[in-house]
Amino acid sequence: MPEIDPELMTHKLAVHPASRPVQQRRQKLGLERAQVVEEQVQALLEARFIREVKYPAWLENVILVKKQNGNWRMCVDYTDLNKACPKDPYPLPNIDTLVDSSSGGHISKVNEQGVHTSSWKPNGKLSKFDLKYETRTAIKAQCLTDFVAEYTGDQIETSTTWELYVGGSSNKVGSGAGIILVNEEGTQIEVSLKFDFSTSNNQAEYEALIAGLKLAKEIGATKETEVKHKARKLNSRADALSKLASTKPRRNNRSLIQEILQDPSVIKMNSKSDVLLVSGLNLGWMIPIVEYLKFDILPEEQKEAYKCRKEAQNYTLVRNVLYKRGISIALLKCVPTSKTEDVLDEVHNGICGNHLRARSLARKVIRAGFFWPTLQKNATNSVKKCQHCQMHANFHVAPPEELISVTSPRPFAKWGLYLLRPFFQAPG
């Protein structure tokens, strides 16, 4: 059994020395039964109740027995091993004699009011064992009070520090939480909590923290609480328990507390109206996505319906507000068509505006938490319309057209004419 020192307790089989080990021939199982055996063996390995042995001396087959509820129970065929272990029933005849001897003095009576009374009187059979029966006298209240006052003494309050480790996990199979509560004396409580409702990773973390605080309150360890965030590598055990709860079915694991949380700790209140309030706003591009996410309505044309269904995967509704999902960024609030110019003007010319160019302006709008599909195009048009950007822009001083060299109309037209005196003939 895990977490038990072998020096404290060790269990061994009393196999007869003359018995030879038996390795049973492997029995083939069907696909369904083989999958059940693999899952149950994996659960026992994770719980550290069994371990893998490469070269076993004894080898027994597993047998699956179907229970009344339809589930399978895995058993092991220990027929050959039981034959090799000698039986020792340890008979205790003296105990039977003492019990039979002391049971002869039981007397039962029923009074006039119909009340059943019973008494016990020994019949003398205990004298041979040097035992004497004496009736119990009444204990005075004052003697009991004096005893309590003498031996109780002053109660010294000792404070114990408990450390709580929690972790949440959510995937397509399910979601769950792992909780570990440890004190200074080494007492450790481990809980694997499975959620019976769908959650995100963040919600699973919060549910794990709330469940851990409830557990600490039940054992009286919540007078003062301090919450700290730790890296995953320092919280590996709780993280493993949360993954175990979110991926593995619940089984009877005696070394681990396994529970199921039926409902979330914080219940979301339903809004009074299921209608999306859009008065005064021109949603424009948001209309088909909102109708599909909220009311499951698609456009009539097949091509547009396919496009809407594909685009809607990148969006989500939070309290009737449409948000754009991202891989490495937070949710971006979608801006309706009637408000795009106001957002660009505030970011470009507002209090914190610095008249950025189109590309930088679009990135700044995204960092501010807003999005719409034509953001880059609208940012380019907005910068071109800005009068201050046109006046103070850093224009490149260059001719509007490429320079072209001008040729002369006739040969030697640009040559000059100089009058020189006659040249003398050189000697030789």
Describe the protein:
With 428 residues, the protein is an alpha+beta fold. The protein has 12 helices and 12 strands. The strands form 4 sheets. The chain has a 4-stranded mixed sheet with strand order 5-6-7-8. A 4-stranded mixed sheet has the order 9-10-11-12.
Give average pLDDT, whole number: 76
How many strands?
A: 12
Strand content: 5-15%
Order of helices and strands: HEEHHEEHEEEHHEHHEEEHHEHH
Write the layout of secondary structure elements.
Blueprint: H1 31-46, E1 62-66, E2 72-76, H2 79-84, H3 93-102, E3 106-110, E4 116-120, H4 141-152, E5 162-170, E6 175-183, E7 188-195, H5 201-218, H6 236-247, E8 257-261, H7 287-295, H8 302-311, E9 315-318, E10 321-324, E11 332-334, H9 340-349, H10 358-367, E12 370-371, H11 375-385, H12 387-391
Parallel strand pairs: 7-8, 11-12
Antiparallel strand pairs: 1-2, 3-4, 5-6, 6-7, 9-10, 10-11
Helix pairs in contact: 9-10, 9-11, 10-11
What attributes does this structure have?
428 residues; alpha+beta; HIV Type 1 Reverse Transcriptase, Chain A, domain 1; Nucleotidyltransferase, domain 5; Endonuclease III, domain 1; 4-stranded mixed sheet; 12 strands; 30% helix
